[in-house]
Write a structure and sequence with these properties.
alpha+beta; two-stranded antiparallel ribbon; 6 helices; globular
Length: about 150
């Protein structure tokens, strides 16, 4: 009976531990299923890019809305920038949306952007638009409105 109880408890614990599909620079994991009904903005940015820094407040604001998530990725992470360096920059610039640890090319099959800022709009785990120019809050709200009902 004790063996059965241990086996049951082990199966229960393993079943409740979900595999994470990707990780943020702060160590938190995320599952695609948590984002499946949302419009997802993947913002590739750099601290040496003034238009990127100008976008941060807009992405912070849009990330507060329902049915949308913003995830950042520092362009230099494709090369050598560490999570701790990224986290310091996020704090410095007042970024409130999470930043990826994992390479978005491996997660969503995107290409290495040629310039920053570059924003990928994803719905149902598929890239539906790539934007290679800076965005305003109005731009983000318009994109969100047009893709919220997109299947």
């Amino acid at each position: 009976m004790k063996l059965f109880g241990t086996l049951f408890l082990s199966v229960f614990v393993l079943a409740s531990c979900q595999k994470q599909d990707f990780f943020y620079s702060d160590g938190r994991g995320e599952r695609f299923s948590n984002l499946s009904d949302q419009v997802l903005f993947i913002n590739i940015w750099a601290d040496w890019c003034p238009p990127c820094i100008k976008e941060f407040p807009y992405f912070n604001q849009i990330n507060e809305k329902k049915d949308v998530s913003v995830i950042g990725y520092h362009f230099d992470q494709f090369d050598s920038l560490s999570d701790s360096e990224v986290n310091k920059l996020i704090e410095k610039f007042g970024v409130t949306f999470p930043n990826l640890r994992d390479d978005p090319r491996d997660i969503w099959g995107i290409d290495l952007p040629e310039n920053v800022p570059t924003t990928y709009i994803i719905k149902n785990n598929k890239v539906i638009e790539t934007i290679t120019t800076p965005l305003t809050l109005e731009d983000l709200e318009n994109k969100l409105a047009s893709y919220s009902t997109f299947d």
